[in-house]
Every structure is written in C-alpha cells, then in structure tokens.
Amino acid sequence: MNSIGVVVIGRNEGNRLKQCLLSVLEQVKTVVYVDSGSNDGSVDLARSLGANVVELDLSIPFTAARARNEGFEYLLKIEPYTEFVQFVDGDCLVVEGWLEKAVKVLDAKPEVVVVCGRRREEFPTNSVYNRLCDIEWDTPVGEAQACGGDAMMRVNALKQVGGFNPSLIAGEEPELCVRLRQAGGTIMRIDAEMTLHDAQIMHFNQWWKRSVRNGHAYAEGAWLHGKPPEKHWIKESRRIWVWGLILPLLAFIAAWFTGGISIILLFVAYSILFSRVYKYARTKGVTPVDGLFYGLFCVLDKFPGLIGQIQFHLSRLLGKKRAIVEYKSAAVSS
Predict the structure, then answer these.
(1) Which of 25, 153, 161, 205 has minimal CB crowding within 10 Å?
(2) Rounded to an integer, what distance in angstroms lies between the CA atom of residue 299 and that of residue 273?
C-alpha cells in the first residue's frame, strides 16, 4: 500500500471529517487533508489524527478542483514516488478493502487511469433527498465516461493532463475525465463498494441549490468540451433548456390561441417524462416509492438547472466569476 497516497478535501465537515480520515489513516502511509477555510477546528482535528494538512490561501476563491490540485502537489512533494492517488471528499468514508481492489485493477490494466466504485449514501432514510443522491450515484459497471469526487487515479496520467481545472466551481471530475480520455486513458467503474457519503440534504432549498449548481456545471462543461466528437454535457444542457424553458414558454404563448389546450399538453409531456424516469429507476432495483420521488424530482430538476445554466452564461458574458454554491447542512463536531 506504500504506492498509494490519499487526498481528502473539506470545509467545516466536523465529525464527518474525523470518520473520513480514520477510514484511510490506518491503511496508507500518507494522507493529505486540504482545508478550504474551516472554522470548526477541522485543521487541528486532522493534525491530531496524523494527517498532513494544507490550508488554502483565503485570498483566492475556493473550488474543489483547486483543493484537489494543491493536495496532489503536496502529496508528491512529500512522497514523490507515489503511483496512485485516492481522492475522497471529507464527508465520505472509504470502505475497507476498496483501496486494494482499486490498485489491483490499475496494476492489471495499464490503460486504466481512473478507477471508481459504488458510492453510497450513508443515511438514506434521513431524507428523500439523501435517497435521491444514492440512486443518482448508482452508475453502470464497466468502462465509463467520468468519475465523481471519490476515485483512485494513476499519478502519471494526472500529471500528464495538468490535474483538475481549478476555475470550475462544479463538474471538475467529468471535465478532467474528458482530458484523460483524450490523452488515451480509460475510466473504469468496478463492481465494488467504495465510499459512504453523508449528504445531509434535509430540506428542499438545499436540493434546489444543488440542482442550480449542477445546471451551472452542465453549462460550463458543454462550453469547454461541447464540440464533436466529445459533445460533453450537450445533451444534458439541451434537455434543461427544452424542458425548463422552451416547452413551457411555447405552451403558455399558445394557450391564448388553443383555449388552454397547450397547457394540458405540456403537463402530458411532463407526465411522459416522469414515466420514463420512473421506469428507468425501477430497472435499477429502486422501490416503487423511491422511483416516484426520483421521477418527480428529475422533472422538477429542469427548473433550477435552467437557473444554473443562465447564471453561467450571464457570468461568462459579463466576465464575472461565480462563487461555490453551499447547500449542505452544518456538520456536527465531536
């Protein structure tokens, strides 16, 4: 396990950070924790547990991508011969046995540059929003287009493409995977438990903010890599505009001429979309109740997603940089 280094990023994660660090400190020699301006004692906690700590410069805007890059650079500074780096968010804990399974794949398949597994929500019964996250993270096993924030990467491949794009406020992992694949690498999701995530999304406004952030990420990803052959997040962005703006706008404009029939047809269209998403969720083994919630929120998601898309393009045209949107509940320290 000496060939592995771990980079943990976080901000005010409280006890979540403690559990995260404990899950990796006994397994690997070098763990780097990157703190993005916490005021809950996270830095002192990480040091007390034996992690190496990097505190980000407060004068530069925080992004998860920037945090991962600085953690990665520090890891190689203290352990220059590290072969693989496991990135993990501070609100997750690494499942026992995951690191060995990921390294085994990377050792056996030189073309694979990123390995990820199943991220699960640790407390799915706490809220419907937590359960929605758990469904979202259940992606197909096999060769993949992208990974999430928890993944093991080949150090040389990451260095070759220059790491994460530090300017992105969200969606930095899929954007990195675009460049890794363009450089000839393969992204692989294996059938193994990887991390447990404590989402702490308890209220509708948190879910809304997260969806706005996702819409922003889709827009920025499409702007950077939307041209063929990649067409990165073009389809996702197009769906947001069609379902969140174009169809409703056309229906309300036509309502005057159709006596309101166009509004009825709009709701029929939304019902069809809901049905398709529900059936897809059920094929993944989701319960009927959770499938109903997943279908409903996937339809509603188009509206905050549209706000995120508009925010990105307005910021781009005006030359402004948006800050990270916070949506999680406050952590509990211990």
Answers:
(1) 205
(2) 7
